[in-house]
């Protein structure tokens, strides 16, 4: 049974026959591929209408089309760069139109890494990561405030995506680590400001090793292009991946795979997206202001 089918079965058993997110409208940034795309599919399968936001127009459109083939009318695509404040306003406007004046969920997922050791980190690398992973989520939440600071009895939730680089630090990622650590403070502040009067929940989901283009071999050639045209290579050097899978020597044989992860493997994009679905769903209705690590047991 496919993961989305198991979730639908669970929804029915828990007296949510129309889905865990029936009638809700969700903005998901970076949802043209990877975790964001899986998140959009799972949300739509649980009754939500989803706004696909991605800088890649073709991937955003393809994701929306695949969702609408499964559930007609459940998705729209609004492509653009979250670093552009005008795009943020456009996303909120179109989401509100799509939701007939209402927005219920924001998942701030868009992002990539631009690594460098501290003594070689450029201002551009530093500022881009802070803009992308901290400022852009803040701007989206601020722009959507009129649709969250309301008292209509409907549930609303914000999930800011972080990383174990933000909760534990990571060599070569001082820029990314700071931005992702800052997301936790933003999330807790939203929970404290918008929870008491409006019932808005805000949580952070911090991922460990998940199979995406950011964790595949850098030699595969994946890249993103900054607004000024610079290409940023994505991924991890193949040697680091091989070391992470377990070393060993000729006498002893290979070491255990992913020995720092108790489950012994990376997570999949669907598993990562499922954790986000759980957080925004009624199953987590009393979970607020938390940072939830999804790591396969890493760092316990």
TrEMBL record:
<dbReference type="InterPro" id="IPR002347">
    <property type="entry name" value="SDR_fam"/>
</dbReference>
<protein>
    <submittedName>
        <fullName>3-oxoacyl-[acyl-carrier protein] reductase</fullName>
    </submittedName>
</protein>
<dbReference type="GO" id="GO:0048038">
    <property type="term" value="F:quinone binding"/>
</dbReference>
<comment type="similarity">
    <text>Belongs to the short-chain dehydrogenases/reductases (SDR) family.</text>
</comment>
<feature type="domain" description="Ketoreductase">
    <location>
        <begin position="24"/>
        <end position="197"/>
    </location>
</feature>
<dbReference type="GO" id="GO:0006633">
    <property type="term" value="P:fatty acid biosynthetic process"/>
</dbReference>
<dbReference type="Pfam" id="PF00106">
    <property type="entry name" value="adh_short"/>
</dbReference>
<dbReference type="InterPro" id="IPR036291">
    <property type="entry name" value="NAD(P)-bd_dom_sf"/>
</dbReference>
<keyword id="KW-0521">NADP</keyword>
<dbReference type="GO" id="GO:0016616">
    <property type="term" value="F:oxidoreductase activity, acting on the CH-OH group of donors, NAD or NADP as acceptor"/>
</dbReference>
<dbReference type="InterPro" id="IPR057326">
    <property type="entry name" value="KR_dom"/>
</dbReference>
<keyword id="KW-0560">Oxidoreductase</keyword>
């Amino acid at each position: 049974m496919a993961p989305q089918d198991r979730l639908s079965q669970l929804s029915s058993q828990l007296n949510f026959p129309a889905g865990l997110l029936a009638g809700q409208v969700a903005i998901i940034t970076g949802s043209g591929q990877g975790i964001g795309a899986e998140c959009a599919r799972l949300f739509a399968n649980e009754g939500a209408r989803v706004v696909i936001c991605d800088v890649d127009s073709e991937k955003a459109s393809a994701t929306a089309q695949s969702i609408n083939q499964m559930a007609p009318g459940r998705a729209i695509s609004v492509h653009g760069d979250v670093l552009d404040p005008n795009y943020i306003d456009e996303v909120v406007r179109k989401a509100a139109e799509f939701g007939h004046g209402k927005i219920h969920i924001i998942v701030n997922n868009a992002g990539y890494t631009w690594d460098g050791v501290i003594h070689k980190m450029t201002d551009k690398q530093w500022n881009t990561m802070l803009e992308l992973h901290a400022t852009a989520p803040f701007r989206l939440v601020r722009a959507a405030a009129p649709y969250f600071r309301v008292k209509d009895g409907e549930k609303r939730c914000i999930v800011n995506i972080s990383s174990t680089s933000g909760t534990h630090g990571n060599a070569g990622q001082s820029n990314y680590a700071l931005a992702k650590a800052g997301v936790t403070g933003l999330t807790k502040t939203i929970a404290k400001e918008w929870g008491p009067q409006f019932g808005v929940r805000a949580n952070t989901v911090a991922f460990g090793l998940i199979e995406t283009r950011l964790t595949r071999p850098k030699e595969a050639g994946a890249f993103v292009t900054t607004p000024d045209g610079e290409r940023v290579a994505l991924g991890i050097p193949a040697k680091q991946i091989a070391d992470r899978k377990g070393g060993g020597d000729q006498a002893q044989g290979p070491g255990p795979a992913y020995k720092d992860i108790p489950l012994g493997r990376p997570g999949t994009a669907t598993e990562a997206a499922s954790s986000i679905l759980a957080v925004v769903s009624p199953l987590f209705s009393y979970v607020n202001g938390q940072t939830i690590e999804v790591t396969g047991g890493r760092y316990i």
